[in-house]
Automatic annotation (TrEMBL):
EC assignment: 2.4.2.17
Pfam families (alphabetical): HisG, HisG_C
Protein name in UniProt: ATP phosphoribosyltransferase
Class in the EC hierarchy, top level: transferase
Highest taxon above the source species: Bacteria
Gene: hisG
Organism field: Ulvibacter antarcticus
């Protein structure tokens, strides 16, 4: 029987949410503390726990069919692979930063300066495009310390909350790229594996859609149903069920969480009462 080989980070920032996503898709996967290769009982999937930085090459070579990695790593490695779904977690950016006391936000600050980074190719391409010539120092971690120890005049590294920059007396000056975790496939994937991947993507999309959407229920006087419904951006049309109390109905729909906060006052004004917002587990459209 065919199986789809998926690479997940062995340990690090992406691992737990990657596994959580597979579990939300109904795939019984355990983490790879002891085993680096795990076969799943209830889905034709083989999970390989690998070093993040090795994954793009494995994809290009067809050693694995699909993987979850940070988009920034794909940009840096430049392997020929295909992004099939943005997953919405591990959001970060690759940015330039300088010592906070330097009052120069212009990119020209970096002209002829030394920049420490773990993302040399990304940085080099950016500087080339901008016509800046700098000396790039490649270091594999703790990049933010480089200016403090006299190794560089600035850095280029991943920023998320900005707390690592702050703790090291640095400030972000330019964002080079935005990144999030992505599902990415090998261009060498075989038809049988592609068919399994389609099933996996179907489940992933149902999970991701549900994450951003809520189920909304409210009580509405019958003569206000039309007015309230018009406010709701519904999938099809809302479900309306009679309440035991005469003249009232329960109106059910789905709503994007962001939209909900924008229309709540309108719904109340239009006559809705007892509004409930409930999480959705999966959403298939
Ligand atoms: N602070 C952060 N906030 C959000 N996402 C991050 C952050 N740091 C890294 N990431 C994302 O997580 C990915 C993995 O980062 P992590 O530091 O766990 O592994 P790594 O050291 O790059 O790789 P390896 O597994 O090869 O050691 C990065 O490529 C990036 O996309
Ligand atoms: O803006 P922040 O929220 O502070 O996050 C940014 C930091 O997170 C990453 O390091 P990580 O903790 O993954 O350590 P590593 O360098 O060992 O990979 C990245 O390299 C930054 O140092
Ligand atoms: Mg890291």
């Amino acid at each position: 029987m065919s199986t789809l080989k998926i690479a997940i980070q062995k340990s690090g920032r992406l691992q737990s949410e990657s596994l959580q996503l597979l579990k939300s898709c109904g795939i019984n996967v355990e983490n790879g503390r002891d085993q680096l290769k795990v076969t799943i009982g209830n889905f034709p999937l083989e999970v390989l726990y690998l070093r993040n930085s090795d994954i793009p090459q494995y994809l290009e070579d067809g050693v694995v069919d699909v993987a979850i990695v940070g988009e920034n790593l794909l940009v840096e490695k430049g392997n020929k692979v295909k992004i099939i779904e943005r997953l919405g977690f591990s959001k970060c950016r690759v940015s330039l930063a300088i010592p906070k006391e330097i009052d120069d936000n212009k990119l020209s600050y970096f002209q002829g300066k030394r920049i420490a980074t773990s993302y040399p190719k990304t940085l080099e391409a950016f500087l080339k495009k901008e016509g800046i010539e700098s000396e790039i120092h490649v270091i594999s971690g703790s990049v933010e310390i480089a200016p403090n120890i006299g190794l560089a005049d600035g850095i280029c590294d991943i920023v998320s909350t900005g707390s690592t920059l702050f703790k090291n007396g640095l400030r972000e000056t330019q964002v080079i790229l935005q990144s999030e975790a992505v599902l990415v496939k090998s261009l060498q994937i075989k038809p049988a594996q592609q068919e399994i991947l389609n099933r996996l993507v179907f489940r992933i999309q149902a999970v991701l859609r549900a994450k951003n959407t809520k189920y909304i229920l409210m009580n509405v006087p019958n003569d206000k149903i039309e007015q309230v419904s018009a406010i709701l951006p519904v999938l099809k049309s809302p479900t309306v069920l009679p309440l035991a109390e005469k003249g009232w109905s329960s109106l059910h729909s789905v709503i994007d969480e962001g939209t909900f906060w924008n229309v709540i006052d309108e719904l109340k004004l239009a006559g809705a009462e007892g509004i409930l917002i409930v999480p959705i587990d999966k959403m298939v459209i």
